[in-house]
Amino acid sequence: MTPQATSPTAGTAAAQRREQAVRAAVEQGLAGPDAPIVALLDTTGIRAGAAALRAAFAAVTDAPVLHAFAVKACPLVPVLRLLRAEGLGAEVASPGELALAGAAGISPADTVLDSPAKTPAELREALALGIAVNADNPQELARLDALVASRDGHPGASAIGLRINPQLGAGSIDALSTATATSKFGVALLDDGAREWVVRAYAERPWLTRLHTHSGSQGVALALMAQGVRAAYELAEEINAAVGRQQVDTLDIGGGLPVNFGSDEETPTYAAYAQLLKEEVPGLFDGRYGLVTEFGRSLLAKHGTVLARVEYAKSSGGRPIAVTHAGVQIAARTVYAPASWPLRIEAYDAKGRPKPGPPVAQDIAGPACFAGDLLAENRPLPLLEQGDHAAVLDTGAYYFAHHYSYNSLARPGIYGFTATAEGVEFATVRSPQPIADLIAEAGGAQVDALL
After folding, report:
1. How far apart are the C-alpha atoms of 240 and 213, rounded to whole Å?
2. Residues paired with 163 in a beta bridge
3. Alpha-carbon gap, residue 141 to 134, rounded angstroms
């Protein structure tokens, strides 16, 4: 579905805050000729999303729930710190993400390590710190066997689980569907002998107390997600019956709530998903199982905006083209897979005010040197002119924090904002990248290394 242009003043309170922030960014000089691209994060919206998540699961269970934010969705330390203040932990999938979570002050007890390719050193560190680990496969479990044996047969404070793939099929985006028949993630539960092996693995390891599943994210329907959770719950029940006790005491149900990229409406909601799970898997919420969630995109996407100045307005083949500073470097998924990742764009004038005028079909182009660097093609918007601004909406997750260094384009500055009736206050989340940093990353200190 191609996103439609929408008026920020006609939508929700979040849209009104966004409009305030865009104008304030221009007026306060955060955006302009010397800062032609900036990213804005709505801290009020982020806090509200975290509160909605906590409330949704509190309404269906009295058991403990750890909401571990998927760090990959927005690997920014101040954002992780904000989410920590809102009661969330962290789900990490690399040493880098673990370091970011630690820098944000997230405790090991509130951290979960998931990755299909953990090294022995990563596993050793996780157990030393007391971080929960979800093993991906039998070989990883064998590595954990050795580490646990070296610790007198006990993993210490770390909760250990096994990731299973219920092999339920794909959603509308294959690359983000993790419960397919041939997915690289987890133990393929429907393969010959796999289910029996899993039950035996738990029976042989009293310290294996969690079970993890995640069916995918964007493009995966709630019903398919719920089927994956039910498969994990039924397997946990089978394991506990086989060993004669409540060995599996926590189910990690992953994240993956899809995001509506077509309007300002935040759908589906956490409340709707939690209620669906309660209907489909009622035993999950009877108090016997603790829960872990790993939501990412749904917590951040709607609360981020990229504001890019129109450097030039031109025409080619009769079609207007607005050449901006927002392209593949901040929106790689949209540029390379526009059908799967369309983004809404709003037009603002040079003073940061909503641009008036009738919609005109035009291209919104980025600065990279290849023809496909387009954020939108033939998109109806008020005609953008030189000095205007294009606001790229719903980019708070997997966009401006995941820089792609095409053409050695520098990372934009990122600013959190709080918008009230009294005005807009900005806080620097990440400063614009200095050119000197680009040189350092490109081996500048080793300039003569190949001579």
Report:
1. 17
2. 212
3. 9
More confident residue, 286 or 4: 286
Task: Pick the closest to residue 274 from 253, 244, 289 (CA basis).
Answer: 253
Return the exposure string of 352-367: e unless at least 16 CB atoms fall within 10 Å of the residue's CB, then b: bebbeeeeeebbbbbb
Mean pLDDT of 312-316: 97
Degrees, nearest 5: CA angle 96-99-101? 110
Residue pLDDT, tens place only, 129-145: 999 999 999 999 999 99
The model's pTM is: 0.93
* Block residue for tokens 């799967």: 340
Q: Tell me how far CA of residue 347 lies from CA of 322, 337, 338, 363, 388, in angstroms.
A: 11, 23, 20, 12, 8
> How many beta carbons lie within 10 A of that of residue 337, not counting itself?
12
- 153-189: pLDDT as tens digits: 889 999 999 999 886 755 555 655 565 666 667 888 8
Instruction: Quickly list DSSP for 262-315.
Output: SSS---S-HHHHHHHHHHH-GGGGSSS-EEEE---HHHHGGGEEEEEEEEEEEE
User: How far is Cα 384 from Cα 363, in angstroms, rounded to an integer?
Assistant: 10
Rounded (10°) angle between helices 77-85 and 43-58: 40
Please report the pLDDT score of residue 3 as a whole number: 47
Q: How many C-beta atoms surround the C-beta of residue 143 within 10 A?
A: 17
